[in-house]
Amino acid sequence: MAERVVMSRLVRGRAPGREFDVAFWQALGPTRIFEAAWDLVVTAAAVRGVDEDQLRLQRSVTRFKRGRRPIPDRR
Questions:
Q1: Backbone angles phi, psi at 45, to 5 degrees
Q2: Which of 5, 27, 33, 57 has a CA that sits 20 to 30 A from residue 66's CA?
Q3: pTM, whole model, 2 decimals?
Q4: What is the chain's pLDDT, residue by residue, as a tens digit (75 residues)?
């Protein structure tokens, strides 16, 4: 099991900014951020009645082809 990240802040008065949230997620690292995001995807699918085995990342393949343009005459 990965080491837990524990952070706290005291908020008084007006609504706090996002700096704390950004610092928290950056402290987790990309692997744990992806795991948390995927957990949300699985939870949302379960609410909709979609089985976890049906979930997969979408992949799109696009081919770019440069068209032939005439070379301008520089006379």
A1: -65, -40
A2: 57
A3: 0.58
A4: 567 888 888 888 888 888 889 999 999 999 999 999 999 999 999 999 988 888 887 777 778 777 777 777 776
